[in-house]
Amino acid sequence: MIRIFSQYVSPKSLLLMAIESLLMSLALVCGVFLRFWNEPVEFDSFVQFPDFALQIIIFVMIFQICFYYSDLYNVHTTRTRYEQLLCLGQSLGAGCLALGLVYYIFPSLLIGRGVFFISTALAATFVMISRIALDRAWQFAAPKQNVLILGTQELAVTVARELTRRGDLNLNLVGFVQTAGSPENHQELFGHPIVGAADKLEEIATDKRIARIIVALEDRRLKMPTRDLVKLRVQGVRVEDAHSTISSLSGRVWLNTVQPSWFVFTDGFHRSKTTLVLKRFLDVACALVGLTLSLPIMLILAIAIRLDSKGPAIYRQKRVGYRGRCFDVLKFRSMRVDAEKLNGAEWAKKDDPRVTRVGRFIRKVRLDELPQFINIIRGDMSFIGPRPERPVFVEQLRQQISYYDERHSVRPGLSGWAQVQYGYGASLDDAVRKLEYDLFYLKNMSVFFDFAIIFQTVRIVFTGHGGR
């Protein structure tokens, strides 16, 4: 398994991206060759470096982004061959439009109509053939890692459930090992056998060719086979804590299973001064660019909001920010001005009757958040971080949810890991789930992780996924 930002990523997805990048580069080279096959002088002139290398990079990068936004690298999604072909066609169409815009803005990158159409057709052919070939080869040739879970209680079942859900990782759950003093006495758990007792762990691991052992003991007072675990670890068997494994599999910290000691001893939650300074610099730079580019859109939205319903276009609302300090967040008004007149502060709901017609649209594509570029420049917010919540809700949630105040250890964000993974929250359960994603972000916070979240945020804005 491969970890990126402490998450397990499917090797198949990364292999697909690498192979298809090479194939699309090859398609462009073949396109030039076919276009100038009887004109060697023109061919030599066309493929001069570094200009041709830059054209290849732009060609591949645009199509890769379109493939990503069409979920073609999401191996969780099961698609028929026809659906794959349809998604590929949509991605190529979007890529052609995007490349057309790039060529219009930067004419020096233009590769010519003949080369472009031949290369695009070849790229589509190469990509589809490679996916069919890789799908078939993966079933037979992909190496599987045998995994053993030490423990038979609910934490062990949770690990097994997450492992089963991530079938893309090529993990083979061999079974469970029962510890001494464990009250259960089953032969099978979650569809997998209990292969033996903890005092035979080394023998079981050797016999079953185990590559990874996940320690899922809720009560550490149970006798843990420490000596066997040390011997196996030295022999190259990977030994992991269940909470870290669940976090890496799901991208969130499971509050119903995690122990306080995990926060103390786990890797992560490190913020160097360099990272914080660089993050702040990028926040201000991106906010200034975003504010400048979005001014025409913001003007149109302000007019539309005023025409749609009475009241100001932009409103201020108290939110809790860094270290619990309150600030005024700026948003485009998406509800009636009397939305809280009767019942006071309420959670946002699906198909909320308080939302105006224009408000429903700007919420769906997250345009109501655009004025928060000003909050970022002021220093109230960051580009990426936990979303700021209203003081009345924070008071309720900090009393009901453990570790809730930890999300205030960084500046709140215009977008965040919880937003791209979960969307709007409208209940206590939603708040718990979003906090789990926020804690995962705090554990793995970095500038590169921020860029990955921004990339996914752009996708949500264009598709409308996750808005309410």
Helix amount: 40-55%
Strand content: 5-15%
N-to-C CA distance: 35 Å
The mean pLDDT is 85
- Helices and strands, in N-to-C order? EEHHHHHEHEEEHEHEHHHEEHHEHEHHH
Q: How many domains, in number, for the residues?
A: 3
Strand arrangement across the biggest beta sheet? 5-6-4-3-7-8
What is the count of β-strands? 12
Secondary-structure content class: alpha/beta
- Main beta-sheet annotation: 6 strands, mixed
Low-confidence stretches: none
Number of helices: 17
Radius of gyration equals: 26 Å
What shape does the CA trace take? flat
Structural description of this entry:
The chain has 468 residues and is α/β, with parallel strands linked by helices. It folds into 3 domains: 2-141, no CATH class; 145-250, 3-Layer(aba) Sandwich (Rossmann fold); 273-463, no CATH class. It is built from 17 helices and 12 strands. The protein has helices at 11-35, 40-46, 51-69, 81-105, 113-141, 154-165, 201-207, 226-234, 242-250, 260-265, 273-308, 357-364, 372-378, 391-400, 417-422, 428-444, 447-463, and strands at residues 2-4, 7-9, 145-150, 171-178, 188-189, 192-197, 212-215, 238-241, 314-320, 326-332, 382-384, 413-415. The strands form 4 sheets. Strands 5-6-4-3-7-8 form a 6-stranded mixed beta sheet, sandwiched between helices. A two-stranded antiparallel sheet has the order 1-2. It has a two-stranded antiparallel sheet with strand order 9-10. Helix 3 packs across helix 4 (81-105), helix 11 packs antiparallel against helix 12 and helix 11 (273-308) runs antiparallel to helix 13 (372-378).
